[in-house]
Specification:
The chain is elongated. 32% of the residues are buried. It has six helices and twelve strands. Helix 2 packs parallel to helix 3 and helix 2 packs parallel to helix 5. The protein is α/β, with parallel strands linked by helices. The two termini are 28 Å apart. The strands form two sheets. Strands 6, 7, 8, 9, 10, 11 and 12 form a seven-stranded parallel β-sheet that branches. 27% of the residues lie in helices and 24% in strands.
Length: 243
């Protein structure tokens, strides 16, 4: 069944279709009057409704609540050092598919990329996340924050801080313990040149845990996604799905 994102649906109501949406549903997918489609709003709620192609009043009507999903017991927050050459779009897409709860792009001292007006990019980033959630059937859309400086990261808001950083004391994901993670887990991914030593020390002093990502050197846009997938498998909803 085709699924669309919409903000603030309500049972018994209707959602107007934009011209592009109506064209896609009616002309590309060849759906007909009265066909049922699904709607999600990114907060865990799934609706279904019936297509109406009345001229200049295309909409989805007779909205019905299908289910309200429970939020994950453990929420992974991806804090990604700003990558260069527009690679953040790729990271956003895949992080949404992997079930990240929020995404914070930030500027690190060794980073090459520097932000311009990131606030103006939020609508486009949200559009990327919406489409990724639609495709992956993820009912919880990650919250995307404007780009922050490293010193602005809300370390105290998290139950645990996981730092992707090689070192003698770094631990693989499988050696973490469930009880040391808590409900809200921040995964910190450095830039192409890695974290500055002072940044690592600041994170460790805040209670951070240094993670090893294995014997290979991963690009910054790969490191967060690979680690997020491993964390979901061992400690998140991927692990729950295996039980």
């Amino acid at each position: 069944m085709e699924r669309l994102f919409t903000a603030h649906p309500a049972p018994g109501g209707f959602v107007p279709l934009e011209r592009k949406q109506a064209h896609y549903l009616g002309r590309v997918l060849r759906l007909n009057q009265g066909d049922t489609v699904e709607l999600f709003d990114g907060t865990g709620v799934l609706y279904e409704g019936d297509l109406s192609f009345a001229k200049k009043n295309e909409r989805i009507e007779n909205l019905r609540l299908v289910r309200q999903a429970d939020p994950p017991a453990r929420r992974f927050h991806l804090w990604q050092a700003l990558p260069k050459l527009g690679k953040l779009d790729f990271v956003l897409q895949k992080a949404a598919e992997l079930g990240a709860w929020s995404i914070v792009p930030f500027v690190s001292r060794h980073g090459v990329a520097r932000p311009d007006d990131s606030t103006g990019k939020i609508p486009r980033w949200e559009s990327i996340l919406q489409e990724a959630c639609r495709q992956s059937e993820n009912l919880f859309m990650p919250r995307i924050h404007p780009v922050m400086g490293f010193e602005e990261l809300p370390l105290s808001d998290m139950d645990s801080l996981l730092i992707a950083h090689p070192g003698r004391d770094s631990r693989p994901v499988r050696d973490l313990h469930d009880e040391e993670l808590g409900e809200n887990v921040a995964l910190l991914i450095g830039p192409e040149g890695g974290f500055h030593d002072e940044e690592v020390q600041a994170l460790l002093q805040a209670g951070g845990i240094s993670l090893s990502l294995g014997p290979r050197v991963l690009r910054t846009e790969t490191a967060g996604l690979a680690t997020l997938a491993a964390l979901q498998s061992w400690f998140g909803d991927g692990h729950k799905a295996r039980e």
